[in-house]
TrEMBL record:
MF terms in GO: metal ion binding; superoxide dismutase activity
Lineage: Bacteria, Pseudomonadati, Pseudomonadota, Alphaproteobacteria, Hyphomicrobiales
Domain Manganese/iron superoxide dismutase N-terminal, residue spans: 4-85
Enzyme category, top tier: oxidoreductase
PANTHER family: SUPEROXIDE DISMUTASE (PTHR42769), SUPEROXIDE DISMUTASE [FE] 2, CHLOROPLASTIC (PTHR42769:SF3)
Annotated ranges, domain Manganese/iron superoxide dismutase C-terminal: 97-194
Protein name: Superoxide dismutase
Binding site for Mn(2+): H27, H78, D161, H165
Homology family: Belongs to the iron/manganese superoxide dismutase family.
Described purpose of this protein according to its UniProt entry: Destroys radicals which are normally produced within the cells and which are toxic to biological systems.
Source domain of life: Bacteria
Amino acid sequence: MALELPALPYAYDALGPYMSKETLEYHHDKHHMAYVTNGNAALKDSPLADKSIEEICKIAYADKIAPLVNNVGQHYNHLHFWNWMKPNGGGKKIPARLQAAIDADLGGYDKMRTDFIQAGVTQFGSGWAWIAKKDGKLAIMKTANGENPLMHGASPILGCDVWEHSYYIDYRNLRPKYLEAFVDNLVNWDYVDEMFSKA
Ligand SMILES: [Fe+2]
């Protein structure tokens, strides 16, 4: 099973002004493409080549196979990242069952928003901020580089890429402003809910 770069689920200019066409062209066409190319090269002679992307993430992390952790991890992360955003997304338009879990496990919308943004701001260097299901409950997480919650015994339902390639064109060094725009204006809560129902 070769990794493939999917088309974006919206036009390159659909997420403006919060995420520009230029950012999406570089991020999707260059950065995600590189993870696909390098991931396929790393899988070429690997016994993991026939496993699912999720299984490869877990096994590669447990066995410390860095090229697969980095590239297949980032492929998984970006596959979902494009779908975790949509035009006119974000804010409190959250499906009821997911909202109830956010209230019960994460202290409600406002605390979830603050803690998620804080996770992204405090991830030193490159990485991701997450909402994941772990031990039957939602939790805020952060991971470094290409890692994701699958590698840490959890199932991601929302992730925000905090690598500089995700925000530097639009926000320069202002990672907090990017994270605020992501939560307030971009999150596709229906896709988060879909992952929540499978987690
Ligand atoms: Fe990225």
